[in-house]
Write a structure and sequence with these properties.
Oligomer: single chain
CATH class: Alpha Beta
Strand order of the largest sheet: 1-4-5-6-7-8-9-10
Distance between the termini: 45 Å
Bound molecules: the ligand O=C(O)c1ccccc1NCC(=O)[C@H](O)[C@H](O)COP(=O)(O)O
Protein name: Indole-3-glycerol phosphate synthase
Radius of gyration: 17 Å
Organism: Flagellimonas marina
Largest sheet: 8 strands, parallel, barrel
CATH superfamily: Aldolase class I
Number of domains: 1
Pathway: Amino-acid biosynthesis; L-tryptophan biosynthesis; L-tryptophan from chorismate: step 4/5
Helix content: 40-55%
EC number: 4.1.1.48
Structural class: alpha/beta
Pfam families: IGPS
């Protein structure tokens, strides 16, 4: 069993329990359902820097990254830094996140928010909308093509952008469909946790131009972004590099200023 299998097994139990406690019609009562969402794909298309900064307290690969920060301070810092969007991990068991983090970030900033979650059920997409997300992540490694189609169409019908994440060519080929906005290549090998930017480089040619290309994980330098841009990447998802510091927003600002030079 790899880490994704373990996370998904736990997630199925979690979603079943949540469904028995709060129904979809109850989630749909949220005032957030009426909010006009902001497209991350459009922000990335219009940006020269393309940074999506993540709120990540801990992870299976690194254990504790930073547990002492206030999510609203992090969100405000990222917004001040000029990021295109913020990714908020909402998984509790493996990443120390929650839906409270998402709604608190929503209350603090007016930039696109990605619900970073292991989505296996449309319930979690309604939840994402109800808690103020603008974008959802779908992970090809844990979903069939049919599931990707159903879940991405549900997200689109709720006005959300969809970022589809792949790790290899097989996942990419099975996933391409018009209901996706962005294709993310994850540089982290989930068996070994090693990160290698070559994954983004080698898959880039096979991503049709209709999708905004996002490179995810293991990005910690300006040089890495300069290496990836010629491959057509317009979005760069960065978590640990910012979150390991005392002030992720300040760090992101310095990073973005340097990138603009
Ligand atoms: O980060 C992990 O250890 C991890 C393990 C298993 C599944 C997903 C995982 N991370 C989720 C992410 O995609 C990253 O948080 C995101 O791309 C940012 O990565 P990084 O900049 O390396 O923190």
């Amino acid at each position: 069993m790899n880490i994704l299998d373990k996370i998904v097994a736990d997630k199925r139990k979690e979603v079943d329990l949540k469904k028995s406690l709060i129904t979809i019609p109850q989630l749909e009562q949220s005032v957030m359902m009426e909010r006009t969402s902001i497209s991350l794909a459009e922000e990335l298309k219009n940006s020269t820097t393309g940074i999506i900064a993540e709120h990540k307290r801990r992870s299976p690969s690194k254990s504790i990254i930073n547990q002492s920060l206030n999510v609203q301070d992090v969100a405000k810092g990222y917004a001040r830094a000029g990021v295109c969007g913020m990714s908020v991990l909402t998984d509790g068991k493996y990443f120390g996140g929650s839906l409270d983090d998402l709604i608190l970030a929503r209350a603090a900033v007016n930039i696109p928010l990605l619900r970073k979650e292991f989505i296996i059920d449309e319930y979690q997409i309604v939840e994402a909308r109800a808690y103020g997300a603008d974008v959802i992540l779908l992970i090809a490694a844990i979903l069939s093509r049919e599931e990707i189609k159903t879940l991405s169409e549900t997200a689109k019908s709720l006005g959300l952008d969809v970022l589809l994440e792949v790790h290899n060519e097989e996942e990419l080929q099975k996933s391409i469909m018009p209901s996706l906005d962005m294709l993310g290549v994850n540089n982290r090998n989930l068996k070994t946790f090693e990160v290698n930017l070559e994954t983004s480089k080698s898959l880039s040619e096979q991503i049709p131009d209709d999708f905004v290309k996002v490179s995810e994980s293991g990005i910690s330098s300006i040089e890495a972004i300069q290496e990836l841009k010629p491959y057509g990447y317009q979005g760069f998802l960065i978590g640990e590099n910012f979150m390991k510091t005392d002030d992720p927003g300040k760090n992101a600002k310095e990073f973005i200023n340097e990138l603009k030079k």
